[in-house]
Specification:
single chain; about 260 residues; alpha/beta; 2-enoyl-CoA Hydratase, Chain A, domain 1; 2 domains; six-stranded mixed beta sheet; three-stranded mixed beta sheet; 12 helices; 9 strands; about 15% strand; globular
């Protein structure tokens, strides 16, 4: 089931992750969250991948969380199995080691917009609409709609979507910085692949480190990015090699401060 709900295709250094539940306008359920988690594994562990794209099958990007998937849950199940697990999966997408492009082929609503916000770049087709309609159901955005979206797009535009229920066209969304580019209907995946090909020509190490530094500067990182950068730097030093050798040989390390 997981392979059917999120397909991963890798070609020429570009991984395309397709959320595929078109009969439900790609509304997310637990199986799809698990499939997205597995898709992250596939991208992270394949050293040939330089950039990733996430898109939807059919006419929608994603209509958000499937109401039927969570409506019958007990409050503790809803909090732990739905909200917190979805948070972990979306955080994985937002912190992929490679740049992530969202190709918005259709509407991105609620959790669908939160999913798109995980990407570094968003390209939208001209006919789409985006918004956060959760409060109309008596719900709140639960997958970082009031957190990541505020940090990336600003509090006021999020207030308008969450408190006022405003929805935006692709062009309006571009004007507010919610998407980076608008293209003709039916062309977004090709445009995303073209952009991904350009990204893929750049230094992969520089891209990964730059992505981490931008996240830290934007207040999106809780310190894991700094630790990752520090760990990668130290891993290349002569001191680490000496420390590991000394441990293996059961002797005191003779550090020389070699970078």
């Amino acid at each position: 089931m997981a392979e059917k709900t999120v397909r991963v295709e890798i070609e020429s250094g570009v991984a395309v992750m397709t959320v595929s539940r078109p009969e439900k306008v790609n509304a997310l359920d637990l199986d799809m969250l698990r499939a997205l988690d597995a898709a992250c594994d596939a991208v992270e562990t394949d050293g040939s991948v330089r950039v990733a794209i996430i898109t939807g099958a059919g006419k929608a990007f994603s209509a958000g969380g499937d109401i039927k998937a969570w409506a019958g849950m007990k409050p503790e199940e809803f909090g732990h199995q739905w909200v917190r697990y979805g948070h972990r999966v979306f955080e994985r997408l937002a912190t992929l080691r490679v740049p992530l492009i969202a190709a918005l082929n259709g509407h991105a609503l609620g959790g669908g917009l939160e999913l798109a916000a995980c990407a570094d770049i968003r390209i939208a087709e001209s006919q789409i609409r985006i918004g956060l309609p959760e409060t109309g159901l008596g719900m709140v955005p639960g997958w970082s709609g009031t957190q990541r979206l505020v940090k990336r797009f600003g509090a006021q535009i999020v207030r308008r979507m969450v408190l006022g229920g405003e929805m935006f066209s692709a062009e309006e969304a571009r004007g507010h910085g919610l998407v980076d580019n608008v293209v003709e209907s039916g062309s977004v995946l090709a445009e995303a692949k073209a952009y991904a090909s350009r990204v893929a020509t750049r230094g992969p190490a520089a891209l990964e480190v730059s992505k981490l530094m931008i996240a830290v500067a934007n207040g999106e990182d809780n310190g894991s990015g700094v630790e990752a950068l520090g760990s990668m730097l130290v891993a290349k030093t002569g001191d680490l090699k000496e420390g590991v050798a000394a441990f293996s040989e059961k002797r005191p390390a003779a550090f020389k401060g070699e970078w």
